[in-house]
Amino acid sequence: MDESHLCRAGASCSSRSRNTESGEWIPRTTILPNTICPRCIHAIEAAVHHQLWSDYLALHRLFLVPTRHAGSEIRSGEPKSQVPVNVMSDALMNEIVDAVYRCASAIAEQLDIPLRESGQLAYWLSVVEHNIAVLLTASAADFPMWNRAGDDFAPVRMDGIQLGLALVELHRRAVSMIGIEHPRERMPVPCPKCESRQLGRDVTPAGVSDINCRNCGSVWTETQYRALTQIGATILRKDPVQ
CB 62: neighbour CB atoms within 10 A? Predict the structure, then answer.
């Protein structure tokens, strides 16, 4: 198989399939070389349109109101971590702002337009939201990013597709961290819209939320969800898999 025609999201491809022999995840094939599949493009669009802004606000709430376990003075993001969640959420918020700015600056460079450089996450998200196609065609360029030690910047070469996929990964990381605060009830069926198995509803002190997909951002009420699953079950009974 020509690897240039595999979705560049790799094992994180939204349309990946599992190799039954090796167990490895295989990204979807693409018509054009060195690009990403339609579902991964949709994942980038979903992250920019609403997910990252919601993630940022949820992380901000997490930062302002650190949660404490009984008998514990800190809330750790990982079992062995001694870094409080509120500090980790602040770091992830900064990563989201930096990543969105990099995307906006790549678009501004492509379109030869000015870009405000002050801390304007909503503004930068708007620039990216209206120019995702432009972003995905952006050539590789060097962007300053923190090194692993976190004490200095180092240039990292990324093209528009890599910049866009980085937004999806940040959304996944944010969901993982926010989930520490709010348990999530997973639904037993794939999303009716994008077929991803990220369908569920959040359980909060105020009750349970509407059913939503964390991949495409679609939302259904309990009544709508039941109707959709009943329709799906009826179709399966009429046309069983051979």
Answer: 24
